[in-house]
Every structure is written in C-alpha cells, then in structure tokens.
C-alpha cells in the first residue's frame, strides 16, 4: 500500500468500461479513496456513434464523453497525459510527460490499435482508425479538401473487411457523396479484405447482405487481397493489384500498445492483458483490465463495444470490494450479442446469432440505444 493513509485507485484510459464505472462511482462514492484518471484526451469517443459522425448524422459533442465533467462528478483527479510504461515492482505508471504516478490498485481501459507495423509504408502513409483523435483529424481534413474542390476526383482505400472497415466505407461514401460534384464519376472507394467474406465473425446472411449493399453503392470490393505495401499515392497488394488513391485508412485486426506487453503483465499473443473472471490480471491481482485491452481467459469474445459496456458495473463492484478487502464478484459475459451496423443510408443491419435483418426501423433502434447510452453522461 502507499504511505498515504488513503488508498489510491488509478485508472488509465477513458474507455467505455471506465466511463460507466466512473459514473456509477459518482452516484455512490467511497470515502477516503484517492481516485485518479489518466487519459491522453479530455473527450473520449463512443465507438457506437463514430460511423454516424463520419456520415454527418451526429456532431462531435454528441459522440464524445466529456472526461473533465465525468471526473468531476466522480470526485476523481483527471490527469491529461499518455501512459507509456508500467513499473509493477514499484506500483507506478510512467507518463509521457515524465510523471510517475503511484497506485495501490490500477485499472486499465485503453482500447486497442490497428496493426500496421508489418506492412511496409503503412505506418507512414496509412491513417489508422485508432487512436480516434488522429483518425478524425485526418477525416476532417479530407472533408475540407473535398468541399474546397468538389469537382476534383477523389480515391480512398480502406483496408479491413470487419464491421469497422465496412461501416467506415459506407459512412464515408454517404458523407462524401453529398460534398463531391457528380460523385458517381469522381468518387472512388475501395475496400480491401484478406478474407473471402466480409465480417467473418458474423453469420452468412449478414456477410452476404453487406457485400450486396457495398457493391450496389458502387464501392469497389477486393476480397482475398492482402496489402503488400503502402505508398503516398497508391496501395499494392501481394497479387499485384495496384490501386491509385489519395488516402488510405487502416481498419484491420487490433493489437495492444507495446508498453503493455513490455510490462510483466501476462498477455495473450496479441499483447492483450489476460484477466480472470473478476477482471483482475492473472499475474497481478492489484491490476484490473476491461474493454478491448483485456482478454478473459475463460471466455473467447470479440473485441466489441457491447462487452466493454457490460463490464462497467462489475468492474466498479470489484474495485469497491478489493478496496474494502472483500471477496470479488465473478463476471460472466453473454455468449450471444446483438450487433447493429449502420449502412450510412438511414438503415441498419441487425446481426444476432444465425439471424440478420436490414431496415430503417433498425437504424432508429440503434440511434435510440446510442443516444440513451450517451445521455447518462449529461447533466
């Protein structure tokens, strides 16, 4: 424990699990606890509404949680800084600014980042979907360029045929088609995917339906293609396919930030922290992890926002329990989940187990769910 009489709980990252847990903490705070939140941003994005923000359906404020306001509500100290190292022997988080912040208990919810390192030129010329602030800066710049030169041809390549890549392609097209003059002639969007079907984690109906929608909207789909190199003005695939483009967006399989694996925390092959059913690190019980950065050892689940949201309440409970030296609660994630995927046209696809549907009503359902989630952080 720290020399301070108060126990110190330090949170790193403003992901969905931490946001929910902080709000719940604020509703029923524990006395005599030093609560600290370290985040590299003051506004944290809600992943469920980001594609809609790209399409222009939602404003920046509607899609971001104000961590300053949330921390104040929870009685937490907010430190705007980037964690870059973890010294578990001395119970310290090392930040980019040089600050070293000690803790008694630590909780990590820092998300993930697309893997680009292995492809020559990708780290230099491709724009990763995460971290979101850098992605949005690049997207706003592209929007402005298109608006300033609506008669100029624009070609975009999106790498990755999972839900993120498909939603990005559809919503970028929805936005840019309203900006560019004669988009059917001047706008080209290419979607490259190494697999033989889109959204491999979903059922066949959803995969086939999204393929049909993609093609009907004029987006050029390149399945079973693997990017070999990225250049300033084009992408080259291993098959020899060469695509000229103005921008490349990278939305592939996610990995953990390198500093996590460089610590002595036990991780999986992608560098994500392995946690028990209590959301504690399997190697360091004083460390919790939730959201994309965590992999539950007993449950194989996709890195999806729905699981991060559900982890918020049990995470809070176990913080409270460990601070009071009480038994921790086991968390069991659901084995099936409803995925709602916006198609950029006021409709959405619902994916549930082996079933799928597509309609405008589903977009209204998705919009209602997302707004309800964000509304809890208002006031």
Automatic annotation (TrEMBL):
One of its GO terms (biological process) is aerobic electron transport chain. InterPro entries: FAD/NAD-bd_sf, FAD/NAD-binding_dom, NADH-Q_oxidoreductase, Pyridine_nucleo_diS_OxRdtase_N, Reg_chr_condens. It holds the Pfam family Pyr_redox_2. Keywords: FAD, Flavoprotein, Oxidoreductase. Its cofactor is FAD. SUPFAM superfamilies: FAD/NAD(P)-binding domain. Belongs to the NADH dehydrogenase family. NCBIfam families: Nterm_to_SelD (TIGR03169). This is FAD-dependent oxidoreductase.
């Amino acid at each position: 424990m720290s020399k301070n009489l108060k126990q110190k709980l330090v949170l790193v990252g403003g992901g969905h699990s931490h946001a929910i847990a902080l709000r719940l903490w604020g509703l029923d705070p524990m006395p005599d606890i030093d609560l600290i939140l370290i985040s590299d941003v003051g506004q944290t994005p809600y992943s469920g509404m980001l594609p809609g923000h790209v399409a222009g359906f939602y404003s920046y404020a509607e899609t971001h949680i104000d961590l300053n306001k949330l921390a104040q509500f929870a009685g937490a100290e907010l430190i705007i800084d980037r964690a870059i190292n973890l010294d578990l022997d001395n119970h310290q988080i090392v930040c980019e600014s040089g600050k070293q912040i000690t803790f008694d208990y630590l909780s990590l919810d820092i998300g993930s980042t697309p893997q680009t390192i292995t492809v020559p030129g990708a780290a230099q010329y491709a724009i990763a979907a995460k971290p979101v602030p850098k992605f949005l800066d690049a997207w706003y710049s592209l929007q402005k360029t298109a608006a300033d030169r609506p008669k100029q041809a624009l070609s975009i390549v999106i790498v990755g045929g999972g839900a993120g890549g498909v939603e990005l392609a559809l919503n970028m097209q929805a936005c840019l088609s309203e900006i560019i003059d004669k988009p059917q002639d001047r706008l080209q969007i290419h979607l490259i995917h190494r697999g033989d079907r889109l959204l491999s984690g979903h059922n066949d109906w959803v995969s086939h339906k999204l393929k049909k929608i993609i093609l009907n909207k004029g987006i050029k789909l390149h399945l079973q293609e693997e990017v070999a190199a990225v250049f300033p003005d084009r992408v080259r695939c291993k098959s020899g396919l060469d695509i000229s483009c103005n921008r490349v967006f990278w939305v592939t399989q996610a990995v953990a930030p390198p500093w996590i694996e460089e610590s002595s925390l036990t991780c999986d092959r992608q560098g994500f922290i392995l946690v028990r059913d209590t959301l504690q690190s399997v190697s360091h019980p004083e460390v919790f992890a939730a959201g994309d950065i965590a992999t539950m050892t007993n449950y194989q689940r996709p890195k999806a926002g729905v699981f991060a949201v559900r982890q918020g309440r049990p995470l809070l409970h176990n913080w409270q329990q460990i601070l009071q030296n009480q038994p921790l609660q086991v968390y069991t994630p659901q084995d099936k989940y409803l995925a709602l995927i916006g198609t950029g046209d006021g409709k959405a696809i619902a994916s549930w187990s082996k079933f799928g549907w597509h309609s405008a009503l589903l977009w209204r359902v998705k919009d209602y769910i997302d707004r309800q989630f964000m509304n809890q952080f208002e006031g």
